[in-house]
Design goal:
It contains nine helices and two strands. It is an all-alpha fold.
Length: 304
Amino acid sequence: MSNEQKKKVLPFYVNFTIAGLSGMGAAVFVHPLEVLKFRMQLSGEKGATSDHKNSIHAIINMAKTEKLSGFYKGITANFVRQVVFTSTRVGCYTSLVDELKKRGQSTVINNAIASMSTGAFAAFISTPTDIAVVRMTADGRLPVESRRNYKNAFDALIKIRKDEGISGLWRGTVATMLRAMTANLTQLMSYDEAKVYMMDNYNMENGLKLHTVASMISGIVYSVCSNPMDVLKTRIQQQKIVDGKPEYSGIIEVASILLKTEGITALWKGWPFYYLRVAPGTILLFIFMEQLKKGYEDNFMKDQ
């Protein structure tokens, strides 16, 4: 039995809390890359002239026009999103997999079902906060008269509800759920599998080095697989409502217009920033989680 299989089982509420705190900790460091990712994904929408020539140009433009604060726009919404989304998707997944291991039913198929179902559920309940993040981070690229100017995450949610109704808070839910299912399947499972593989085949100890290597592998798999759905999700959630009618009818229309006007490579728009956000974000998320778990086990589970 591998070291990974011998780990102690933490209570559900502990997994939930650790996941949320870890997500918030990672967000502090990677939020600027999140902002740049959204800006690149929205650049050249519907064949319009691109806002930025390339990634470096995007950084220079933002630094000139929005200063340092521009790179942290929407950070409050991101914190709220981490509390709702990351706590649920990672906390529920971890608890489900722990239970499957206890019952001797931890197979690839069962773990895949657990990862996709928890990802979909987490995405559904956190879609309003996800919309707030997208809109607040993208606001700086719009003309002054077109900006939404949300003060914080809660102001964003209240105004979206008032202006667009309840349905406006769940705009792009299908794309968000599909992205989350892909994210959980590729990020969480690839991390767990990479850890077990490295310990069993390269005799790596369960420590910081192993966590970093497994996180880097997970980040690559996750970013390549989920970037297309992330682009479509961003386009849907950022869209304007004109005369009571949204720009897009749904994910199918977004995808068809994008492919027709920008080509298939547009599905990976913003990938450098997406990967640069995902890679350190994944590393920080799992390192924070592993350390918090170790701290809990050492202080509250000594006798188990």
